[in-house]
Amino acid sequence: STPEPAFLLNYSDFVKHVLVSNGRNYTKETHLNKYMLQALTGQGLLTSENPLWRKQRRLIQPFFHRNYLANFVDLMVDATNETLARIDAHAAQNEPFDIANEMMTLTLNIVSRALFGYDIDQQTDRVGDAVNTLIEIAKPKRRRFQETLQVLDEIVYSFIKQRRQRPHGQQRDLLDMLIQVRYEDSGETMDDLQIRDEVMSLLIAGHETTANTLGWMWYLLAQQPEIVEKIESELDLVLHGRSPTITDFPHLSYCDKVIKESMRLYPSAWSISRHTVADDEIGGCYIPAGAIVALSPYTLHRHPKFWPEPEKFDPERFTPEQEAARHRYAYIPFGAGARKCIGDQFALMESIIILPMILQKFRLHLVPKHPIEEHALVTLRARHGILMTATRK
Questions:
Q1: DSSP secondary-structure letter at 30?
Q2: What is the pLDDT confidence band of residue 214, given thresholds at 50, 70 and 90?
Q3: What are residue 289's DSSP bridge partners?
């Protein structure tokens, strides 16, 4: 078969064209989505197309609204406390540990409890190993991929079955919500396969991505002691040693800028690809139907037109004045347009809980001479992990 023509577009106006203004001409029918992600998430929100996608998005969107997400604050704090205990054990021995790995464990605990409540706890390790294996193999035709997927499927389907047998009460987690919610037009509920696909989508998209962002954030902060000090003075002022609650978030504005600037330099979804439906023209360039169009948040976020001294880590880029002055589509860590990440608020919320809680207890230091290498898989990982030591405060 002839190779598809491919275009990399690296400008805010072009991003707007592909993801927003002419978004209907660009589907997710690309190799990565069809071959790799669909093997995992089927017809879930991550990879499905219209009309199913719109129908599902409309159904699930309300549960990712800030007001509903408030239900998950305590669970995020609990999970972070467990991570603090693990870091503390390393600190006591003064031994190096992989902060990227710790963030993976933490975000998996959070997203799996948000989905399945505390039912998941005895299965968390099995789920985590399976998710990691699937992302690392990334080849759906391999036997080990299929076997691992079967393990994950069995766990998810057994949860769905248990819930269906329970009397309908309150919605304690996202799985209750997926089982109980009804389509407006038909009054029907989702079938088991559709629930499974949505669960897989949220599990895959909601764990690896935030974990990577946080791992890179600690790497950046370890090189910027003066920024860490500024965060600490904000924490002293706002939290006085407490864990953050939802009423604190608006007051942690410097933390918010730090998180946004980390996502600028290391956007976890480093590449976004689309399939062109009909011929198009972008910036004077002819784009034929059937072409692949790639957008890279990683390169866009380093474009000198929008980002002076692009390699410099500077949270002040995210003051309200700077944000208002910059092109709206120069910064797309969660994508943009109709297919913008449904979990963006969820991710920002867990980050603004995790950052303060770890900094209140520890100083993190990079292990000298440990190689830090960017590894662009489905998401942007550190190839050899990010080794750190922690000292207690």
A1: S
A2: very high
A3: none
CB atoms within 10 A of CB 29: 17
Which amino acid belongs to residue 158? S
SS3 4: coil
Contact criterion met (CB below 8 Å) for 15 and 291: no
Beta bridge partners of 387: 98
CA distance 217 to 266: 8
What distances in angstroms separate CA 158 from CA 93, 119, 175, 182, one per listed residue?
A: 40, 11, 12, 21
Residue 324 in this model has a pLDDT that exceeds 80: yes
85, 96, 93, 117: which is closest to 105 by C-alpha? 85
Written as six digits, the tokens of 286 are 């002819």
Question: Could you tell me the pLDDT band of residue 105, with boundaries at 50, 70 and 90?
Answer: very high
Q: Would the pTM count as exceeding 0.70?
A: yes
3-state secondary structure 273-327: EEEECCCEEECCEEECCCCEEEECHHHHCCCCCCCCCCCCCCHHHHCHHHHHHCC
Three-class DSSP category at 36? helix
Query: Nearest 5°: phi and psi at 27?
Result: -105, 175
User: What does the alpha-carbon distance between residue 71 and residue 51 come to, in Å, rounded to a whole number?
Assistant: 30
